[in-house]
Specification:
Structural class: alpha/beta
Strand order of the largest sheet: 5-6-4-3-7-1-8-13-2-14
Radius of gyration: 25 Å
Largest sheet: 10 strands, mixed
CATH topology of one domain: Alkaline Phosphatase, subunit A
Strand content: 15-25%
Helix content: 25-40%
Number of strands: 14
CATH architecture of one domain: 3-Layer(aba) Sandwich
Length: about 375
């Protein structure tokens, strides 16, 4: 019996070794998202993954987007079409609602919806916008205006007089002071409201000085600005200067919201012009670098970079090399591919994953620390 017991002991030991030890599960408490004082949303209109790739390969295999720790994807479709347009796409960012193609700051029933820029103004934050299109074009318009159709440019311009955007730079002067539907001179009305207003005909942008105690507006073209390749050169300066302006203009130290658009990446896609896309992409990249540098120094600024949609069904074809892109296109319009989102700074972790384009609005509000009930 003793021998049988001794034989059983090794068997028991072997058997015990085969029973796995229960894993110790450490439950980590979720860390609260650090609040951002400032939020800068940068929209590369029409900028899909191929536009980003072409820019990167044409720039020594590097873009400033590589400095962003958080990367996600958004679903860009609108309320009435799998392929969105810029108006519906930007309204998703500005208002957090899916709406029909062509809608500016209104929902699918054409009811005005408060934008994040308007909410920022009501909360006492400074606000700004810079675009390489006219300032009444679909993307910037969707942050300040509420009209049923994107090409009602004079109506959109009139809505600028209903807001207090502290700093803006873009084209579209004609829709303010050379109007066809009424005799209003919105340029003069802005000055009467206390804005420092200037334009390309009076001074080059680089020669204009700003006073952070007052609001500032600058028109870069009568209607649409030139492409970068034809001499337009204000985006980098206007964006970086705008961030500094708003930071100092912030009288009550409440922060600011700013939207910067690289508008003409989209136009290169519509034109099926690879070189046009790349030149606009590289200017947008330089602007991203300046804004990231600002955010890094500041420590309280969330930077979000995305696009409203991809344009052109752009592809990089066989035979392409670094600095020599052979591009091809499936369309001269937008496509429905998901769109990359990059985030840096306080609250950037909110932007990981896959989500609707409307979630960008809600994530920016969360980063500010605003509750849904506000």
């Amino acid at each position: 019996m003793k021998k049988l017991f001794l034989l059983f002991i090794p068997l028991l030991i072997v058997t015990c070794k085969q029973i796995p030890t229960p894993a110790v599960v450490v439950v980590k408490e979720e860390q609260p998202v650090k609040k951002a004082k400032n939020v800068i949303l940068m929209v590369g209109d029409g900028m899909g993954l191929t536009q980003i790739s072409a820019g990167m390969y044409s720039n020594g295999n590097y873009l400033h987007l590589e400095r962003f720790p958080a990367v996600g994807l958004h679903k860009s479709y609108s309320a009435d079409n799998l392929v969105t347009d810029s108006a519906a796409g930007a309204t998703a960012f500005s208002c957090g609602v899916k709406t029909y193609n062509g809608a500016i700051g209104v929902n699918a029933d054409t009811v005005a919806v408060q934008t994040i820029l308007e909410e920022a103004e009501l909360k006492g934050l400074a606000t700004g916008m810079v675009a390489t299109s006219s300032i009444v074009h679909a993307t910037p318009a969707s942050f300040v205006a509420h009209v049923r159709y994107r090409k009602l440019y004079e109506d959109i311009a009139a809505d600028f007089l209903k807001t207090e955007v502290d700093y803006w730079v873009g084209g579209g002067k004609a829709f303010f002071n050379n109007r066809e539907n009424d005799e209003r001179d919105l340029y003069a009305e802005l000055r009467a409201k206390g804005y420092m207003v200037s334009d390309y005909f009076i001074n080059d942008f680089e020669d204009v000085s700003t006073n952070v105690k007052g609001n500032f507006a600058y028109f870069t073209a009568n209607k649409e600005p030139l492409p970068k390749a034809q001499g337009r050169d204000y985006l980098v300066r206007a964006a970086s200067q705008g961030a500094r302006f708003l930071d100092k203009h912030d009288k009550e130290d409440k922060g600011f919201f700013m939207m910067i658009e690289g508008s003409q990446i989209d136009w290169g896609g519509h034109a099926n012009d690879s070189d046009y896309i790349i030149s606009e992409m590289l200017e947008f990249n330089e602007t991203i670098g300046k804004i990231i540098d600002f955010a890094k120094r500041d420590g309280e600024t969330l930077v979000v970079v995305t696009a409203d949609h991809e344009t052109g069904g752009y592809a990089i074809n066989p035979g392409s090399k670094m600095d020599t892109i052979i591009g091809a296109f499936t369309s001269d319009y937008h496509t429905a591919t998901m769109i990359p989102v990059f985030a840096y700074g306080p609250g950037s972790e909110l932007f990981n994953g896959i989500y609707e384009n409307t979630a960008i609005y809600h994530k920016m509000r969360s980063a500010f620390g605003w509750t849904e009930e506000e």
